[in-house]
Amino acid sequence: MCVAAGLVQVTAPLVGTFYQASSPGGEPFVQVGDIVEPGHQLAIIEAMKLLNSITADVRGRVHAVHPQDGEVVEYAQPLFDLVPVD
Prior knowledge:
By secondary structure, the chain is mainly beta. About 0% of the residues lie in helices and about 50% in strands.
């Protein structure tokens, strides 16, 4: 997680395939504008046949989703920008 210009950036903790939903064509875990709480699931990264949950560390509004669904992401690549809210 990185904080810059009032945004909290959620980054990839590992290399793998980024998924926005639990199944192909399913409802995304979050969309731009959603309010999330700490622990809220944002996405999944599949690595070596294991599904790894990506969760929010702060309460915030989803400002941006960077990767496309099914995109291979690198370690520390930005995934989401969150705007902290009280």
